[in-house]
């Protein structure tokens, strides 16, 4: 009923039967679970290569079975329940996290229509006019798992982790939602399949680059990954909201975190990177042959794992933010930038739609504005006269500002007392021709 | 009452079998969760029940063709507003539950009366109201539900929309103004705090951990400095204030005794360490027993 409401351009689900739904749902679950196993191996391997070490390489070819072994270990560990915990919430919290993370892929288009057991059906479980909002809704409910898990543990560090997580999600969901609005404006729809088909000529990452940058930053914040992993910062909060969890309950949180990474990567792929569409030189081959049939699944997976690689790359290279810096970025940089960008995009779309100003005129205006900005950057600023450094040797204060400091350029070290003693000793030795007794020299006073 | 609503749903031409099934699954869940909201002792449990009701309500909206409303219900109410509520409630802590002491006289009776009155009114209205077949859903949702909602909001109700927008902006500004505070002193950042610490001559490094160089690493045993003297500041201040600090001199003496080749446990003239008489008993005597049980000297006693 809902699928029929999707306007032309979207996926057509009218030929789907109930067993096709079951097959698609099972395939999505299996895909997600195996992808998580692969993602853990992938992350460990890539981070290891970045840190010049081999990474997991014992179990299976290239160490591929390492995460399977880890999962087995987690399964067989003792499943502890904290005595002072709020039992029901404590048990339900990991379930909320993992169930909500499994929901997102239902509306992600993995490919166009294919022939499956004699039925023409899109490679997507379902789609409806507000599919992207549905993804945001699933993400925001999934956070309850983290928040409640931290609260129900009845322990300080988990509570701090979950409080941080609440604040983090509320702040970064705003920026994320605003960055998606410009895609809705250009695509004219919130349905994922229609957004993919609207990227027929150009992927939205190019015209909407600022929105993409904002989305990428906020997606890292949303998934609690480095450099924004403050809810589980191991240096400050042991492991945050999951400190008191063990065995399968811990594994579920772990699973949810990695599935969420896959989710936001899939959303970035679908909304900004053309979804299942082949990249440009390939898409032109043989009249778009690679955009039909089962080929698009390959392009989708390649893009998905490219975004996942970005996640790992960021983790391997950027340090964790301090909490106040993190909040400042969210509220004082990302949200205003996203708001300004949405207004700009809405303005341009309004001009095009209601005043029928064609694209060339807009490009000319944008070019003139850009040229103006570039020229204004080229005009040299009036330089403030720099005070000349005081001439001559200056007095060196070894504890300037309270810390022991080395001499600045131009400062001269005071004469060393040792040199003076050595000179004296040499003088005495030359006059009395005795070997100077070094053991009798005064012990030097080291600082403190 | 749900039977009445069900009859209303079933009377319409729009109700399909799937929608009916969904209703009969969700309705008991919602009623139970609503009772949970009323009777939960802990504030967080009440909030959770409310979340369950809200999400079930969103499912109902979607089933009735209001897809946009259903999803926005989850994003805005469940995802943002309830999260803010929970943020405050969480800080209360797990262990505490609401006090059931009546603070306003007769409040409970008044509450019961008002509730019964509301129930009577609702039952009367729902029981006697007529439910004609719903019409126009397909026209309203053409071409899609969000577009239909947008068309209604931004054409028929655009003035009300703008008024609400202005109200919300005013409220946000008011919140900013009311919580704004002029800074009277310059802001102290990380650097200024570090400078202050150096200038104040405080201990710059972390305090020594209890039990360092001592033979016990319990929280109440002071660390020993390289000369064997106890460091007071290594024991947490709370324990020191409560008088639960173990006797450092005794622990130092034990080390001397062990070094001299005798048992660590004190004899009659040198009893095991005792806490301040005003404070709680410390676990030091147990430690002494445990230490005596372990054959430290290695002479098989």
Explain what you see.
The complex is a heterodimer of chains A (448) and B (301). In chain A, 58% of the residues lie in helices and 2% in strands. Chain A is mainly α and 448 residues long. In chain A, strands 1-2 form a two-stranded antiparallel ribbon. In chain A, β1 and β2 form a beta hairpin. Chain A starts with 17 loop residues before the first helix and ends in a 16-residue tail after the last helix. Residues 1-7 and 434-448 of chain A have low confidence and may be disordered. By secondary structure, chain B is an all-alpha fold. Chain B has twelve helices and two strands; from the N terminus they run αααααααααββααα. Chain B has helices at 2-11, 17-39, 43-63, 67-90, 107-128, 137-140, 145-156, 158-179, 190-199, 237-242, 248-259, 284-293, and strands spanning 223-224, 230-231. Chain B is elongated and about 100 Å long. Chains A and B meet through α4 and α5 of A and α3, α4, α7 and α9 of B.
What keyword list fits this structure?
heterodimer, A: 448 residues, mainly alpha, two-stranded antiparallel sheet, 14 helices, 58% helix, disordered N terminus, disordered C terminus, B: mainly alpha, elongated
Total helical elements of chain B:
12
Q: Helical stretch count of chain A?
A: 14
One letter per element, helices H and strands E, the order of chain A comes to HHHEEHHHHHHHHHHH
**Main β-sheet of chain B, in a few words?**
2 strands, antiparallel
* Strand order across the largest sheet of chain B: 1-2
What's the short version?
The complex is a heterodimer of chains A (about 450) and B (about 300). With about 450 residues, chain A is mainly α.
Topology readout:
The complex is a heterodimer of chains A (448) and B (301).
Chain A: H1 18-50, H2 66-76, H3 87-103, E1 111-116, E2 119-123, H4 131-152, H5 156-187, H6 192-198, H7 209-222, H8 234-237, H9 247-271, H10 280-283, H11 295-317, H12 323-354, H13 359-378, H14 417-432
Chain B: H1 2-11, H2 17-39, H3 43-63, H4 67-90, H5 107-128, H6 137-140, H7 145-156, H8 158-179, H9 190-199, E1 223-224, E2 230-231, H10 237-242, H11 248-259, H12 284-293
Helix pairs in contact in B: 2-3, 3-4
């Amino acid at each position: 009923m809902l699928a029929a409401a999707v306007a032309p351009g979207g996926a057509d689900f009218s030929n789907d039967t109930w067993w096709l739904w079951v097959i698609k749902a099972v395939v999505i679950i299996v895909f997600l679970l195996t992808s998580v196993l692969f993602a853990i191996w992938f992350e460990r391997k890539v981070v290891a290569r970045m840190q010049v070490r081999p990474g997991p390489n014992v179990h299976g070819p290239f160490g591929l079975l390492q995460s399977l072994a880890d999962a087995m270990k987690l399964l067989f560990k003792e499943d502890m329940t904290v005595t002072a915990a709020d039992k029901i919430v404590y048990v339900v919290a990991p379930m909320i996290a993992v169930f909500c993370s499994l929901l997102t892929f239902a509306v992600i288009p993995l490919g166009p229509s294919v022939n499956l057991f004699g039925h023409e059906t899109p490679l997507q479980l379902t789609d409806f006019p507000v599919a992207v909002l549905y993804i945001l809704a699933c993400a925001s409910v999934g956070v309850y798992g983290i928040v409640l898990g931290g609260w129900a543990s009845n322990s300080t560090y988990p509570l701090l982790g979950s409080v941080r997580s609440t604040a983090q999600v509320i702040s970064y969901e705003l920026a994320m939602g605003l960055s998606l609005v410009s895609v809705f404006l250009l695509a004219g729809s919130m349905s994922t399949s229609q957004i993919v088909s609207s990227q027929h000529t150009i992927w939205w990452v190019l015209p909407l680059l600022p929105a993409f940058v904002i989305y990428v930053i906020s997606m890292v914040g949303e998934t609690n990954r480095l450099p924004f992993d403050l809810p589980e910062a191991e240096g400050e909060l042991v492991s945050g909201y999951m400190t008191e969890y063990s065995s399968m309950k811990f594994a579920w949180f772990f699973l949810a975190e990695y599935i969420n990474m896959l989710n936001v990567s899939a959303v970035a792929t679908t909304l900004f990177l053309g979804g299942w569409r082949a990249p440009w030189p390939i898409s032109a081959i043989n009249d778009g042959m690679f955009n039909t049939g089962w080929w698009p699944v390959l392009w989708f997976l390649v893009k998905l794992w490219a975004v996942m690689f970005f996640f790992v790359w960021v983790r391997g290279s950027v340090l964790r933010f301090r909490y106040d810096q993190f909040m400042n970025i969210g509220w004082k940089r990302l949200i205003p930038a996203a708001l300004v960008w949405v207004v700009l995009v809405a303005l341009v779309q309004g001009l095009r739609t209601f005043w029928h100003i064609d694209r060339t005129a807009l490009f000319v205006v944008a070019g003139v504005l850009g040229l103006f900005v570039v020229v204004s950057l080229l005009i040299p600023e009036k330089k403030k006269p720099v005070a000349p450094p005081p001439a001559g040797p200056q007095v060196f204060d070894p504890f300037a500002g309270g810390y022991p400091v080395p001499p600045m350029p131009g400062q001269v070290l005071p004469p060393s007392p040792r040199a003076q003693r050595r000179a004296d000793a040499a003088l005495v030795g030359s006059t009395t021709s005795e070997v100077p007794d070094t053991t009798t020299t005064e012990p030097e006073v080291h600082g403190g | 009452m749900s039977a009445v609503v069900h009859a209303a749903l079933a009377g319409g031409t729009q109700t399909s079998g799937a929608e009916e099934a969904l209703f009969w699954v969700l309705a008991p869940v919602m009623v139970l969760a609503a009772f949970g909201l009323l009777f939960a002792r802990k504030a967080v449990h009440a909030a959770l029940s409310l979340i369950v009701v809200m999400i079930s309500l969103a499912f109902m909206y979607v089933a009735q063709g209001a897809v946009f409303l259903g999803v926005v219900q989850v994003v805005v109410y469940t995802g943002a507003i309830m999260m803010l509520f929970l943020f405050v409630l969480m800080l209360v802590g797990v262990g505490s539950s609401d006090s059931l002491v009546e603070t306003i006289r007769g409040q409970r009776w008044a509450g019961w009366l008002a509730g019964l009155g509301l129930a009577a009114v609702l039952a009367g209205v729902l029981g006697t109201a007529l439910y004609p077949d719903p019409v126009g859903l397909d026209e309203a949702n053409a071409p899609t539900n969000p577009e239909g909602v947008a068309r209604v909001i931004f054409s028929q109700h655009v003035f009300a929309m703008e008024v609400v927008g202005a109200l919300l902006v005013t409220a946000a500004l008011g919140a900013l103004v009311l919580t704004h505070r002029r800074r009277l002193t310059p802001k102290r950042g990380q650097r200024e705090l570090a400078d202050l610490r150096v200038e104040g001559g405080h201990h710059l490094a972390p305090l020594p951990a209890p039990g360092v160089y001592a033979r016990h690493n319990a929280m109440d045993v002071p660390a020993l400095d390289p000369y064997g003297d106890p460091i007071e500041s290594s024991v947490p201040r709370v324990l020191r204030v409560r008088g639960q600090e173990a006797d450092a001199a005794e622990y130092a003496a034990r080390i001397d005794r062990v070094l001299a080749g005798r048992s660590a446990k004190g004899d009659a003239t040198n009893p095991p360490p005792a806490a301040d008489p005003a404070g709680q008993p410390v676990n030091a005597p147990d430690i002494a027993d445990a230490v005596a049980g372990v054959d430290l000297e290695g002479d098989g006693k």
